[in-house]
Input
Amino acid sequence: MNAAFFDGAFVLILLLNLATLGSSRIDTAIKAVALQGAMSGLMPATFALRTGEWHLLALSVAAMFIKGVIIPLMLFRALREAGVRREASPYLGFTSSVVVGTALTIMCFALSDALGTGIMGASRLHVPVALSTIAAGALLMVVRRKAVTQIVGYLLMENGIFLLSLALPADVPAPIEVGILLDLIVAVFVMGIAVFHINREFDSMAVHNLGELKEL
Amino acid sequence: MTLLLLLCILPVLLGGGVLALRGPAARWYVLLLAAVSNAATALAVLLGGIGRGTQRLFAIDDVALIVLLATAIVFLAVVLHIGTHRERDKPEALFTACLLWFLASMNLVALAQHLALLWVAIETTTLASAPLIYHHRSRRSLEAVWKYLLLCSVGIAIALVGTLLLSFAVARAAHGADPLYLKSMLGMAAHADLPLLRAGFLFMLVGYGTKMGLAPMHAWLPDAHSEAPSPVSALLSGALLNCAFLGVLRVFQVCSAAGLHDFAAGWLITFGVISLFVSAALLVQQRDYKRMLAFSSIEHMGLLAVGTAAGGLGAQGAMLHMLTHGFTKGSLFLTAGNILQHYGTKQVNKVRALLERAPRDAFFWIVGLIAISGIPPFGTFLSEFLIIRGLFDAERGLVAGAVLVLLTLVFAAMSSIMLRMTFGPSRHERAVRSSLWQWAGTGGLLAVVLLLGVQPPHALMDLVAAAAQLFEVRP
Output
């Protein structure tokens, strides 16, 4: 696998960030983040082909299956039960979100230059793209109203962190990697249940209804 | 396999088993079994009966043992307290199971000797405790649990980024080995890339600080503490916050070993003082007594951060304060739960003449107030005194002055609220009778705090001193 292949993959991941930020249909956002998760899940497998560390292949298959299949299915189910399709009246419009997201991406490239990690990862784009994905996820969580979209933002962040961890020169022990993936599934599961209850209590899953607990 | 792993495995298995059990009484006995065996194990480790473990992934060092002890004793008190509820209020199956899984995840936090494993454990505490907070199934508790899940998950995700940055910082010295084992990280810290290490520290401080309730990342804490059932609030404040603090302590340990002690201490003091300030500001005129206790927890988390940063006696004070604050606040939340049962409201204005309505709860409410305010002879006095001494020793007199002023303010605010609830004109309502059991949880915790102030056991004080040594500046 050469650097050009990885460059292409990272550019695609960046575009998926912007697609998620710019989509008004929640199911499109879920699909984009799932595709991105599956792509980042594929990367350890390419390392495995190169270095022959086969436990990476297992990690790869597990990550792709969890991020590309299980979690999207859970989210689509939550969406169906809630009967929503679109993100209505977000705090920040879709076009503006893309613009802010682009600005954040530029800042992340500058940041990773400033940090001067000396760590390349799979290509020069690896660390800055991982950081931009984390930033895009954080942005999505604060500018949208629907609970499901906030979960999508959380998943974007997780994808970014997964990419960042792949840039590590050493492997984290396999049980811990499994633990991180399990935590992710359970987190989405628990959040999904919370979304179901929010929807039942308020007849909508917009989190701005949650405003009773305030100081003074 | 080390014996210590039973601390995690046993509650996980019991939690699974309890789902199949019928009858609330049986479930409570399972809880009691888990709590007693857990506390016995923690004490045995303290007294040297059980080894601390030498595995690379799981072991208990001095500071972890303090967290383990605090969790074990608060959990035991909470279980005794739950035993006092009337038969129909006894815990349901899922609630019991989540309590046990919560215990297991907190024990795993103490046992983890690998920074990524520590992260997994802390995230698991969030997931295991979320159903507990949502126990009342009300709109308000739903809002609280959503905030808790989102803010803590994002906070912890930031901590994971910090963990990765830390391992980038020492990657060159590691020569391809996994640097995230705490031991290897500490060994290689002297050769770390300092800008990356600083960035990693800040990410981890903000991340785990969110879970610990340091201001300004504390938004979830008052909601979760006030909407959760009181035994759960007691566990959140008395045990969980310490676990999150352990995450901060681990990265502080790494910074000290890398010669960044002053940099890291400066940030701990900044967040600590902001927390003290925010809690003091929001405690004045607080209208909900469970929120009042929650803001008091933010204050004490600030104290922990400040004391640790001071080093020396201050760090010893912070280590001791994890125990004394945990026990006192646990007891206060349990009493607050009783008050909520008597009056059916969390509003301060609607609670009057507690002394006549429920004399025993009034007694523990006032004793708890004295203890949480750091008045002798309670252990909190000793720990807060050490923290202030440490600040002066570290020539941070200005910080010490600010802390003292804010502590006085908090004391004035809390005593005004709690005294108003206790005394006042009687409405000649029938006094509530309470059983001896109800005494066990709250009274036991306060008795331990008193013991720590009057005659602190040698084994424990040695442990506190040894734990504080972990954060000393190394050449």
The first helix of chain A runs from residue 3 to 22. Chain A touches chain B at residues 115-119, 134, 138, 141, 147, 150, 154, 157-158, 161, 164-165, 167-173, 176, 179-180, 183, 186-187, 190-191, 194, 197-198, 201-202, 207, 210-213, 215-216 (CB under 8 Å). The CA atoms of residues 198 and 215 of chain A lie 22 Å apart.
